[in-house]
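User: Please fill in residues for this 453-position structure.
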């Protein structure tokens, strides 16, 4: 049977390899009298789960306190909750997290230059997989304030801009561009809090357009589950299919993320194929999303072609040892002003006082600044409603186009080009005074000098 036939039956050619591990048995329910609690140990069996529950980043009294706070939210979408303590946060905004996909942007450069349409998908899909190494971080980024932005330059010739364009529901948009490609995404993450875990549904639309020939790629990633939020060691899994489609030719790549099984079996593993428009397999792709990805030409049965060998296309870069927030070297650069453009926008995430305080280790100040920003945001909303105004994004337009996703419909946002015009004007000006940007006050606000009421 051809591998695409098996895929249509629900799992991909490799799906049966660890089918016996498709759901973990090492789960404890009602542990220590907590109704609805589920603890999953990815490295052990059923007898290890209760011991696993005693591990993790929290003291026993903290676990008890957080459980009492969070239990009432079971079954809810907690994407935009504002009551979460900063102790579970990392010093990045979600807009900065969105830019981490640019770390290995050289893979898109290679895809643009590649003449082989199937190898082009090998490069592009490996780029899409590369973000999962950073996604295994278990700290929560700050929710962006409405109107907040993030700019990234001085990396791979890229200009990156993201903007928070809606608060309820939370919607972010981003655009990146260099001489080889443009990247556009509208993201409206949905979550479902399950007590000691949370499911994350990547409602969104991701498009990559290559400049050499105008080919457009569409990406649909799998959902993600964060396990052991309060009890046990927190860990992340993203079982399911990632599909990248060449909208110009009909070629596609389908990659299956193996679910983590007993004693860690299958964890991190990704397998699949590049298919032509007739759904015939052309290239086998295999690897681990936390290590490297490899490829090999294959026949119509999905078997490696004689005389070919497995070749590496991507490998994760070296990372800092024992980093508190599990940051990569690239993630550390996201807060640096060395990756900021000239005359940084005052709405940039780097300038958030709560984020900066957490980066410096001052949890008390971070918490108070977070509360202050959130109250200012609520005051802006009241003022906007009183005046009959609507919030209008600066760099993106909200369109009437609705894009279906596996997790719900999405209102598509488009880059309006105004940022490119603004940045070109700033970069070409000789009259702009160089100031200490780190002292700039964070200002994403629609109304100036607004007093909360």
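Assistant: Residues filled in for all 453 positions:
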């Amino acid at each position: 049977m051809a591998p695409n036939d098996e895929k249509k039956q629900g799992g991909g050619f490799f799906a049966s390899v660890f089918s016996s591990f498709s759901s973990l048995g090492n789960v404890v329910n009602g542990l220590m009298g907590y109704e609805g609690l589920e603890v999953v140990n990815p490295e052990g069996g059923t007898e290890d789960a209760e011991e696993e529950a005693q591990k993790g980043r929290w003291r026993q009294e903290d676990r008890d306190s957080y459980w009492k706070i969070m239990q009432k939210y079971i079954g809810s979408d907690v994407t935009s909750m504002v009551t979460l303590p900063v102790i579970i946060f990392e010093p990045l905004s979600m807009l900065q997290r969105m830019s981490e996909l640019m770390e290995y942007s050289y893979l898109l450069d290679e895809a643009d230059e590649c003449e082989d349409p199937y190898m082009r998908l090998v490069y592009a899909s490996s780029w899409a997989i590369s973000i999962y190494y950073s996604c295994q971080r278990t700290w929560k980024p700050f929710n962006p304030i409405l109107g907040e932005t993030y700019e990234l330059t001085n990396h791979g010739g890229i200009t990156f801009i993201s903007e928070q364009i809606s608060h309820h529901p939370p919607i972010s948009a981003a655009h990146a561009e260099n001489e080889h490609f443009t990247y556009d995404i509208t993201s409206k993450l949905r979550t479902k809090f399950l007590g000691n875990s949370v499911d994350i549904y990547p409602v969104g639309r991701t498009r990559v357009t290559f400049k050499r020939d105008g080919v457009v790629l569409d990406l649909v990633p799998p959902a993600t589950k964060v396990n052991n939020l309060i009890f046990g060691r927190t860990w992340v899994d993203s079982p399911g299919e990632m599909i990248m489609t060449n909208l110009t030719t009909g070629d596609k790549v389908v990659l299956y993320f193996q679910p983590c099984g007993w004693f860690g079996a299958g964890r991190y593993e990704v397998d699949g194929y590049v298919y032509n428009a007739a759904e015939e397999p052309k290239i086998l792709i295999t690897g681990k999303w936390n290590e490297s990805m490899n490829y090999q030409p294959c026949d119509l049965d999905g078997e490696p072609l004689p005389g070919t060998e497995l070749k590496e296309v991507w490998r994760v870069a070296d990372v800092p040892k024992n980093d508190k927030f599990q940051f990569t070297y690239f993630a550390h650069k996201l807060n640096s002003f060395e990756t900021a453009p000239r005359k940084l926008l005052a709405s940039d995430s780097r300038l958030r006082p709560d984020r900066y305080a957490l980066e410096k280790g001052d949890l008390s100040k971070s918490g108070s600044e977070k509360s202050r920003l959130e109250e200012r945001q609520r005051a802006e909303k009241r003022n906007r409603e009183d005046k009959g105004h609507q919030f209008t994004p600066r760099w993106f337009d909200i369109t009437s186009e609705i894009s279906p996703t596996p997790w719900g419909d999405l209102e598509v946002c488009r880059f309006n080009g105004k940022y490119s015009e603004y940045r070109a004007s700033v970069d070409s000006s000789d009259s702009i005074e160089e100031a200490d940007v780190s002292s700039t006050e964070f200002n994403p606000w629609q109304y100036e000098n607004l007093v909360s009421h």
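For context: The CA atoms of residues 136 and 236 lie 5 Å apart.
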